[in-house]
Amino acid sequence: MITDTELCKIATLARLSCSDKEIANFAKQLTTIMDMIDILNEVDCDNVEPLSSVSDMNQRMRKDDVMAKDISDELFANIPGGSQLAKEVKCFIVPKVVE
Amino acid sequence: MSNLTRLTIANALAGLKKKEFSCQELTNAHLTEMTKHRDLNAYITETSDIAIRQAKTADQNYSDNRARALEGIPIAVKDLFCTKGVLTTAGSKMLSNFVPTYESTISQKVSDHGTIMLGKTNMDEFAMGSANITSYFGNVTNPWKANDDSAPLVPGGSSGGSAAAVSSFLAMAALGSDTGGSVRQPASFTGLFGFKPTYGRCSRYGMVAFASSLDQAGIFTRNVLDSAFMLEAMMGFDPKDSTSIDEPVPELQSACGSSIKNMRIGVPFDIIQQNNIAPEIIKMWHDTIEILKGEGVEIIDISLPHAKYAIAAYYVIAPAEASSNLARYDGVRYGLRVEKENMTIDEMYAMTRSAGFGAEVKRRIMIGTYVLSSSFMDAYYHKAQKIRRLIANDFNEAFTKTDVILLPSAPSEAFKIGEKQDDPVTMYLNDLFTIPASLAGLPCASVPAALSSRGLPLGMQVIGKHLDEYNILKVSSAIERNCKHNNFIAKGV
Lengths: 99, 493
Known about the structure:
The complex is a heterodimer.
Chain A: H1 4-13, H2 20-37, H3 72-75, H4 84-89
Chain B: H1 9-17, H2 23-36, E1 43-46, H3 48-63, E2 74-78, H4 105-112, E3 116-121, H5 160-167, E4 173-178, H6 184-190, E5 193-196, E6 216-221, H7 224-234, E7 264-267, H8 269-272, H9 279-294, E8 298-301, H10 310-325, H11 345-356, H12 359-372, H13 377-398, E9 404-408, H14 424-428, H15 435-440, E10 444-451, E11 457-464, H16 469-482
Parallel strand pairs in B: 2-3, 2-4, 7-8, 7-9
Antiparallel strand pairs in B: 1-3, 4-6, 5-6, 5-10, 9-11, 10-11
């Protein structure tokens, strides 16, 4: 059972803000989903290695060559609000983060 | 000229080569049909200018005798593949203004083979859904209707726009993506052949990420041979994707129409015998087994004892990966930003994400956040990964005695828009049969195999060994040639 308080905590961790109605609704739905997931408890998984990826986990190595070109203009092409200042100074502009 | 849209890719290529019609005529025929069927809402963005320009180049290439393998074939691209200079939304308000500055490897590869891009297709938001009802750009309508009810039906999801486009002749093929069934289930609902290759066969570079250990590009076509044409162009190693498989791409076209005599087909009879599967699905399954027996195959009884845990494991693993992948949407560098005066950066994150994501995406981000939180990591996330290992082991064991495995693609025919909407778990059960192979990373396809009593298509799923796309096409082609009488074309399109 996921309570409204727990749901609020999850939403905060996920950087989502929800109305009271949304909180109640999501709490109910997440409870149903987690109840469905509880079937996993039936399975004895002692001595089973977790499978995090089906691909070969031995990552390829490559020479330490510079491959990227200067893409700084491209990085700012989709800047929220199309801020001209951000494009000129090539900095992402955000609300003040230091007092 | 609209009958040009009815051609198969093989026939279109032959006609273009013989100059029976031009690439521009073929493209224009599709653009005309797209205008006529906008009510289906299959496309988010139509790229007619690009299509016409590419068609002119393609005609020139035919004239100069330098036509490429798929020169002049008009296709649609799911709006989750980044396309340079063309809006790419992933069906979300969050990316409703996003114009990529680079091209996904898959869309680049098919374009390099000569295909023409007609537009970007609608989809469930961030590929999360099984009915194409979570898109910010509205629902997609299935061109099929039940013979006893004119209510609009869902095309399946998440690649619902791609499925609707190909099944209503608005494209000869369409790129899709399949994380837990998002190509196979809509293919089943729309009477198409849908293929998801082995995880790692198709580069994920430039695909908007949902669950990275599961996401894989796929393809919708109206027949098996057309899929072989497209897959040969799509698959292959890409150094830009760290999970890309460095193996040569096999020739696939010869699989279509070849004999399947003496092949070993695995059937999990333990699943067939469960009493909660719809009788029409069971009938299709048995009929397909009989068809294949008639082709001289050996039917092998296999067991997938952990398949019943696949949905639960998937709804831990996929949301966990999604919550991590979607953390990038914070309003800072691209996409939506919601601001107000004197807000903190944390308020900006929360306001942006709350306004930019729809309910299903928020649900999955929160499930993911919950199962990854320190108190529950072992109980849910690690447990689900262990079950994933057991499911993969079940397949490995089955494939020691079989060449392919036969499962249904979906537990039902296409349902009405609005149905199953209230309870997320009911919706999740749509992917009951497709998720096991996704968790194991195996190649798989959905081939139209029957019509329900209400006249709607039903798909049979063929699952192959790791990297064995060839045998899937062989068996699918055999099912296709025995089911041709069903004429899997929606009425009225």
